[in-house]
Amino acid sequence: MRIVLGVGGGIAAYKVASLLRLFTEAGHDVTVIPTEASTRFIGTATWEALSGNPVSNSVFDDVHLVNHVRLGHEADLVVVAPATADLLAKAATGQAGDLLTNTLLMAHGPVLFAPAMHTEMWQHAATRANVETLRSRGAAVLEPASGRLTGADSGPGRLPEPQVIFEAAMALVQGQSDYQLPLAGRIVTISAGGTREPLDPVRFLGNRSSGKQGVALAVAARNAGATVRLLAAHMDVPPPAGVEVVRVETALQLRAAALDAAARSDVVIMSAAVADFRPAEVSDTKIKKRDDTADPVISLVRNPDILQELVEQRNSGPAGSGQLIVGFAAETGDSQGDVLAYAEAKLRRKGCDLLVVNHVGTDKVFGQDSNSVVILSRSGSEPQEASGTKTEVSEAIIGRISFELNHVSPRA
Ligand SMILES: Cc1cc2nc3c(=O)[nH]c(=O)nc-3n(C[C@H](O)[C@H](O)[C@H](O)COP(=O)(O)O)c2cc1C
């Protein structure tokens, strides 16, 4: 496929190098057209080297090739990223002062804008009107992500992640003209990894959670267009790019972080392995091994039930019934009942909207790259099975969450 990749003059231009890579690695022939302003952020040498094609932003280069007409005409897809406020205005008013704007006027195939700018610029009536105009003419304009902007401030206006733009572009080419990613504009909080409950400064009670499933969920939610906040307890894997990370150690720290983040979230996914109990007393100094004392006994106290508190906070707060809460149950069956029976009882008891049930044993789930789950829903729909790599399972879970958010509402 022939793709024209227009690059606007914003800080986020650097992220577009990764987008270009995604296109070329998928086998597409990409011509990059950086605007004059964008070359103050990323030079043309980067685009030439990564695309393997000549790069210009002038209608007066290689005039014999009539690039100002040809490029738009021949392109199967035009993507503009970052689409600055200025570029959106130029495109909406049909200006043709450089090679990119000429190409946009000549485009025969689908056109996708991925905006990035400060929140005030994005929310300004002029930009809103320009976006509406472009959409009414059939262009796809992605919603920007929320999060940290150029300075210390944050809000909607971040360039969506390269994978998100890539997926939207491919969907657009497949004819989904009004395509928006299923979690576009949504804020998703995900807890991952295992908590550690200190006994003394060097010892703790922990668990076998690697964080792989939580990280895969964060990637899937990010790729579905969400702004993701990852509450990372102890993990064996690094957190992914493009998500905000809050580090926690103990169940109590995770509780505080989760209740705080949930107040600003559309979806909360509690996939961390949280200790049910913690040592009643934590020694300030290392507990010594001495031959003349009795064997030590560790007394445990119950940790708070974070999932239940999240449901209570949701039901009593302004987020009301709009928020979707997803629990994870790592169950083993026993003589009293099977895994699903325990999980269904847990779903009813906790009042969360979805419960993802793992069947665990020492060789199952923890630290592995694959998983097999059943997703139970409070809305009464059939349990859904998902198995495969943790990435595939995460995509199924995020798909189910998107479906519940966009098609099943409201939640009581
Ligand atoms: C450091 C810096 C960062 C900028 N970031 C953005 C941005 O993210 N979005 C935007 O719309 N404009 C941004 N601007 C302003 C644009 O560069 C300016 O409007 C320019 O004319 C846009 O050119 P273009 O139409 O080639 O994109 C930024 C300017 C500077 C100096």
Outline the secondary-structure elements:
Elements: E1 2-7, H1 16-25, E2 29-34, H2 44-51, H3 67-74, E3 77-83, H4 85-92, H5 99-106, E4 111-115, H6 119-123, H7 125-136, E5 140-141, E6 145-148, E7 154-158, H8 162-173, E8 187-192, E9 197-198, E10 204-205, H9 212-223, E11 227-232, E12 244-247, H10 251-262, E13 267-270, E14 277-279, E15 300-302, H11 306-316, E16 324-331, H12 339-350, E17 354-359, E18 370-377, E19 384-389, H13 390-407
Parallel strand pairs: 1-2, 1-3, 3-4, 4-5, 8-11, 8-13, 11-12, 13-16, 16-17
Antiparallel strand pairs: 6-7, 9-10, 14-15, 17-18, 18-19
Helix pairs in contact: 1-2, 1-8, 3-5, 4-7, 9-13, 10-11
The chain binds flavin mononucleotide.
Flavin mononucleotide (FMN) binds at residues 8-12, 35, 37-38, 82, 84-87, 116-117, 121, 150.
Structure, briefly:
By secondary structure, this protein is α/β, with parallel strands linked by helices. The protein is built from 13 helices and 19 strands. α1 (16-25) runs parallel beside α2.
